């Protein structure tokens, strides 16, 4: 079967959460969200994981999670730093571009601090091994909101199973006016290495035209441009599972409860 790679974006700091939430323990034995994503990815059939991190968290990251995962699957690291004059890196599309020299297979991209569930990894892996189209795993909006504050979500427009547009909404509360089954993007994408050329061209333009002190180079903007210019088709895959994240510190209690329940049900046996 065709080899596949999982790219995990872990270079960002959790400003609203108040710390390095990528390595915040949620399991009874100190497991973090990435442990569960790696477990689901390995079970789905991924062959390699590439972690995008900042150099200054490398030691802690490897000690808390990376070295443990490396005993189960091939692991590689790339680094995305905050340029001088900026408090954070250039964004998610730049993060993927940082992987150009190490990712040579079809690949999925996820956030390190998001819990996507096993179904999401199954459907994206199956797509990567059977289609050259790009893909996105979408979640029902009602499965992604929190009681602890508002969230930003990319609301998807879909025609015949393919993404036509993503509109960013920056302050969605649990009680919102969208239909509950509205599909949103949670930054779980599937690409082929062909995207690196487009990312490189787009990044050169970004450097020439953006406010380099604060603007970010985002995956959805690159994907949107490729769709509208006829350079890519993006199949929308869906999952009925609930997404969990730690946008706010109080969100941790919800994910801990959910993970403990799934573990008791045998879904993460031997993690």
CATH topology of the domain at 5-133 and 186-214 and 242-264, anyone? Spore Coat Polysaccharide Biosynthesis Protein SpsA, Chain A
Secondary-structure element series? EHEHEHEEHEEEEHHEEH
Q: How many H/I helical runs?
A: 7
Percent helix, as a range, is 25-40%
What is the SS-derived class? Answer: alpha/beta
Topology, number of strands: 11
Which CATH-level-2 architecture of the domain at 5-133 and 186-214 and 242-264?
A: Alpha-Beta Complex
List unreliable stretches of 5+ residues.
13-19
- The portion of residues forming beta strands comes to 25-35%
Mean pLDDT: 92
Head-to-tail CA distance between termini: 25 Å
Biggest beta sheet summary? 9 strands, mixed
CATH first level of the domain at 5-133 and 186-214 and 242-264: Alpha Beta
Taken from the alpha-carbon principal axes, the silhouette is: globular
Rg: 18 Å
CATH superfamily of the domain at 5-133 and 186-214 and 242-264: Spore Coat Polysaccharide Biosynthesis Protein SpsA, Chain A
Write the layout of secondary structure elements.
Blueprint: E1 5-9, H1 33-44, E2 48-53, H2 58-69, E3 74-79, H3 92-97, E4 107-111, E5 114-115, H4 118-128, E6 134-140, E7 151-159, E8 162-172, E9 183-191, H5 195-209, H6 219-228, E10 234-239, E11 244-245, H7 251-264
Parallel strand pairs: 1-2, 1-4, 2-3, 6-10
Antiparallel strand pairs: 4-9, 5-11, 6-9, 7-8, 7-9
Helix pairs in contact: 1-4
Task: Give an overview of the whole structure.
- The protein contains 7 helices and 11 strands.
- The chain has a domain at 5-133 and 186-214 and 242-264: Alpha-Beta Complex (Spore Coat Polysaccharide Biosynthesis Protein SpsA, Chain A), CATH 3.90.550.
- Strands 1, 2, 3, 4, 6, 7, 8, 9 and 10 form a 9-stranded mixed sheet that branches. Strands 5-11 form a two-stranded antiparallel sheet.
- With 271 residues, the protein is α/β, with parallel strands linked by helices.
- Strand 1, helix 1 (33-44) and strand 2 form a beta-alpha-beta unit.
- Helix 1 packs across helix 4.
């Amino acid at each position: 079967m065709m080899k596949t790679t999982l790219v995990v974006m872990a270079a960002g700091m959790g400003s609203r959460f108040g710390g390095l939430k990528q390595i915040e323990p949620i399991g009874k034995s100190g497991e973090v969200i990435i442990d569960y994503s790696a477990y689901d990815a390995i079970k789905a059939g991924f062959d390699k994981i590439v972690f995008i991190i900042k150099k200054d968290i490398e030691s802690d990251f490897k000690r808390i999670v990376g070295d443990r995962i490396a005993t189960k699957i091939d692991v590689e690291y790339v680094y995305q730093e905050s340029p001088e004059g900026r408090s954070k890196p250039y964004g998610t599309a730049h993060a993927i571009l940082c992987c150009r020299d190490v990712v040579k297979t079809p690949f999925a991209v996820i956030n390190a601090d998001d819990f996507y569930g096993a179904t999401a990894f199954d459907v994206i892996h199956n797509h990567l091994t059977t289609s050259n189209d790009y893909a996105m795993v979408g979640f029902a909006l009602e499965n992604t909101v929190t009681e602890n504050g508002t969230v930003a979500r990319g609301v998807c427009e879909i025609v015949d199973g393919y993404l036509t547009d993503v509109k960013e909404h920056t302050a969605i509360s649990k009680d919102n006016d969208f239909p509950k089954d509205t599909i949103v993007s949670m930054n779980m994408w599937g690409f082929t290495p062909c995207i690196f050329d487009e990312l490189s061209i787009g990044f050169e333009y970004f450097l020439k035209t953006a406010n380099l002190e604060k603007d970010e180079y985002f995956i959805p903007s690159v994907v949107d441009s490729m769709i509208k210019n006829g350079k890519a088709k993006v199949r929308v895959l869906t999952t009925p599972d609930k997404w969990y994240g730690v946008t706010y510190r109080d969100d941790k209690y919800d994910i801990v409860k959910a993970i403990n329940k799934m573990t008791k049900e045998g879904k993460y046996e031997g993690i």
